[in-house]
C-alpha cells in the first residue's frame, strides 16, 4: 500500500533533455519537491558530495536498476532501488545508513511517473532507516534509454558482532532461507506476459536489514554468510558459494518454501523456481548447532515467517549443488547460463 | 596517450543480455580479465559489498555518465567516469579512496570497446590513487540504452585542514580558475559535428585531487569553496553559488583563460564559452589575501599552469553574476536554461 504525496505544481509534464543540463531546468526539477521530498540535513548542503561521519568497519555497495516495466504489482523501480542496496549492505552484516541516488531518465518520461517513483523512494528510505545524501540526474534522448534507470550506492556500518565471510563457511553448516522463492520474478513475468492468476502475484521486495540485525545480535559470528538470491535466483548464488568455497551444497527440495500460485505459474511457464529472481528473501549459512533456533527466531519476524532449513554444506561433491528431490531422486543444480528473464531488477 | 592491456581471450565478441543475468555468462564476463584488470584486495572478496575502514569526516559522491560518443579525442567514458567522481570528492576537500563501478551495457556492444573502456578505468584509477572495490553490471536490450552508461560513486577522507562550504564564502573573496574554459565541451562537439580544426581539440579530463591536496595543505581554511564547472559550465556553477550565498559575483572577461582554437570554435558554433562544459578545471573561492599566492602555487602544478584570478565575490547585486567585458561593458551572466549540448558527461 503506497502512501501518496501530492505532486508539486510544475510548468512541465514531461522530462526533456534540458532537465539534465545542470542549468535552470535541472534546478527546477530538483527544486520542484525532490529536495523537499527527500529532505535531510546532509542532502540539504547541496555540495558535489555529502559529508558524513563514519567510524570503523564500513560496508560499501552499488547496484543499478533497469527493471522493466518500472511499475509492477506491489512496487516500482524506486522502492526496488532502495531495498536492493539496503539488502546488499545487510548481507554484509552492516546497518545501512547513507544512500546515493542517481537517475538516468529518458526524454519524454512523464513527471507524474517520475514523481511516483520518487515518493516510493522516500517511503522505502524511511522504512529502511536510510537517507539519500547525494545524487545525480542525467537525461538521454528518447530511444537511448528506457524511462528510468536508477543507481543506488550505499554505505553501512558493519555490526560489531557480525563476521560475514565466505571464509567462515564450513562443511556441516546449515543453509537457511528466509521465505518463499521465485515470487518477485513471477510477479514481473506475469505483468510482462499479461498472465492472469486467481489473485495477483505481487513482488516481495522489502528491506531485510531489520531482520538481519535481529539475527546477528542474537547469533553473532555463528552467522557465517548471508546472500540475497536476486538475479539468477537461488541456483546462481549457491553455485557461486560452492565454487568459491570449494565445498558442496545439498539442497532439500521438500523444504524449499514456495507460494502455491507461484509454483503453478512456474509450471505453466516452464521455469525452474530455483532460477527465478528473488527480492525479499535471503539465504543464511549458519553453524548447524544454532540452525533450529535461528529459524525459530526468523519465523517470529515479519520478513521470515516462511523460513526453512533447506540444505547443508558438505565436503562431498565439492563445487557442486545437488538437489534431493521430493520424490527421492537427486540432480545437479547447475549455474544458470544466460538470462531466463532479462531486466528483472 | 593510452597504455594498452591485451584483451583476454573470450569466446564472445559482443555483449548479450545473458551477460547481465547473474549466471554463467556474467561470471564469464567478469572473470575474463575484469577482476584481474581492476584487482585489489577489497574487490577480490567478491561479496555483495566491500568492507572498508574509515575514520572521521568522509565525503560521499555519485555521478552517472552518459556521454556520447563514448570515445572522444584524448579519452573515453571510462576515464571520464573515474575522474568525474574523483573530482567531485576533491571538490569536497577530500582525498578520494574508494570507488564503486556500475555498468548499464546495451546488448550488442562489442567486447573490444568494453575492454578499451575498462582499461581506461584501470589507468585512471591508478593515476588518481583510487581503487574500485565493488561493482555491478546490467545489460539492456538493443535500443533501450546507448552502448555504455557508467555510474561511479566514491568515498574519500576529508582532509583535516579542509573546510569547504558555501557558508565560508564572503564578500571580497577572490575567484580563481585553474585552467582554460570550454575545452571538454568543444572537443565533444567537434567529434559529434565532424568539425575540423587545425589541430585536434582534446578533452581536458583529468583527476584534480592531487592539485587540490597541494593547495589545501598550503592554504587550509583560506580555501572557502571548490567547484568543478562541468555541465552548464562556469555560468551555471557561479549562478548557483550566487543564488545560494545571496552574494554577487563580478567576473573579469579579460582574465578568463581560453585556448585560441576553442575560442574560435565557440565563435563558429555560436556558443558562449562560459556555458560550455568543462572536465579538467576547477574554480576556487579563496580569501583575497592569499589569492595571488594561491594562483602562483597553482601555476607550478601541471593541472594549473593557466590559472587566473577571474573574479571576486561582492555584496553588490546579490544573487547575480556580472561580467565585465574586455571592451569595458557589463552584462548579466544568467543561469543557462536548458541544454546547450546534451550528454556531455
UniProtKB/TrEMBL annotation, chains A, B:
Domain PurM-like N-terminal: 48-158
Entry's Gene Ontology BP terms: protein maturation
Record-annotated PurM-like C-terminal domain positions: 171-321
InterPro entries: HypE, PurM-like_C_dom, PurM-like_C_sf, PurM-like_N, PurM-like_N_sf
SUPFAM superfamilies: PurM C-terminal domain-like (SSF56042), PurM N-terminal domain-like (SSF55326)
CDD domains: HypE
Family listed: Belongs to the HypE family.
Name of the featured protein: Hydrogenase expression/formation protein HypE
Organism of derivation: Thermoflexibacter ruber
Organism placement in taxonomy: Bacteria, Pseudomonadati, Bacteroidota, Cytophagia, Cytophagales
Amino acid at each position: 500500500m503506497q502512501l501518496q504525496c501530492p505532486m508539486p505544481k510544475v510548468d512541465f509534464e514531461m522530462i526533456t533533455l534540458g532537465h539534465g543540463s545542470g542549468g535552470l531546468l535541472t534546478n527546477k526539477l530538483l527544486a520542484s519537491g525532490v529536495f523537499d521530498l527527500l529532505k535531510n540535513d546532509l542532502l540539504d548542503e547541496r555540495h558535489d558530495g555529502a559529508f558524513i561521519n563514519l567510524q570503523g568497519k564500513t560496508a560499501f555497495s552499488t547496484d543499478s536498476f533497469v527493471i522493466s516495466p518500472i511499475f509492477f504489482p506491489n512496487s516500482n523501480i524506486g522502492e526496488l532501488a532502495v531495498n536492493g542496496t539496503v539488502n546488499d549492505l545487510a548481507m554484509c552484516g552492516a546497518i545501512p545508513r547513507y544512500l546515493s541516488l542517481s537517475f538516468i531518465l529518458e526524454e519524454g518520461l512523464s513527471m507524474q511517473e517520475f514523481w511516483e517513483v520518487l515518493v516510493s523512494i522516500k517511503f522505502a528510505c524511511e522504512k529502511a532507516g536510510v537517507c539519500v545524501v547525494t545524487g545525480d540526474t542525467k537525461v538521454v534522448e528518447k530511444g537511448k534509454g528506457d524511462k528510468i534507470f536508477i543507481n543506488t550506492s550505499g554505505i553501512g556500518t558493519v555490526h560489531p558482532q557480525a563476521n560475514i565471510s565466505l571464509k567462515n563457511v564450513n562443511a556441516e553448516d546449515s543453509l537457511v532461507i528466509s521465505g518463499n522463492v521465485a515470487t518477485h520474478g513471477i510477479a514481473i513475468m506475469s505483468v510482462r506476459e499479461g498472465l492472469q492468476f486467481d489473485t495477483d502475484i505481487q513482488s516481495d521486495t522489502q528491506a531485510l536489514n531489520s531482520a538481519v540485525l535481529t539475527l546477528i545480535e542474537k547469533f553473532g559470528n555463528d552467522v557465517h554468510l548471508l546472500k540475497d538470491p536476486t538475479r539468477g535466483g537461488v541456483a546462481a548464488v549457491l553455485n557461486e558459494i560452492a565454487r568459491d568455497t570449494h565445498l558442496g551444497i545439498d539442497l532439500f527440495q521438500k523444504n524449499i518454501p514456495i507460494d502455491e500460485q507461484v509454483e503453478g505459474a512456474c509450471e505453466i511457464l516452464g521455469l525452474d523456481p530455483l532460477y527465478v529472481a528473488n527480492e525479499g528473501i535471503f539465504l543464511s549459512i549458519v553453524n548447524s548447532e544454532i540452525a533450529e533456533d535461528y529459524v525459530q527466531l526468523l519465523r517470529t519476524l515479519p520478513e521470515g515467517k516462511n523460513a526453512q532449513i533447506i540444505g547443508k554444506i558438505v565436503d562431498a561433491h565439492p563445487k557442486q549443488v545437488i538437489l534431493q528431490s521430493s520424490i527421492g531422486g537427486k540432480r545437479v543444480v547447475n549455474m544458470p547460463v544466460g538470462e531466463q528473464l532479462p531486466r528483472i531488477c
